[in-house]
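Structural prep section.
Before we set up the soaks we want a predicted structure of the protein with zinc ion in place, mainly to decide which crystallisation condition to try first. Input record follows.
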Amino acid sequence: MARRRSSRAGYGWKHRQAREQLLPYAYGRLCHFCQKPMLRGQKLDLDHTDDRTSYRGMTHASCNRAAGARKTNAARRAASDPKSRDW
Ligand SMILES: [Zn+2]
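Run finished without errors. Recording the tokens verbatim:
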């Protein structure tokens, strides 16, 4: 039995509601990551501030994911960085 976990994996109901409402207004505007227009048919994400208290606006999903991945990779690199050698 496959359990659906979309609400846990994503941002939750509130985030999805906000995204749905903003989506129609996003088309034709510039994505703040790549400064290119967001077009109908493209996957768009609702980007939020790092502390998730407010929204920065709609972006291309690919741009948003790429930015998120960069952040995660940087954090992971910093965590695993063998800075001190005790020898
Ligand atoms: Zn973009």
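Observations: The chain has a mean pLDDT of 84.
Flagged for discussion at group meeting.
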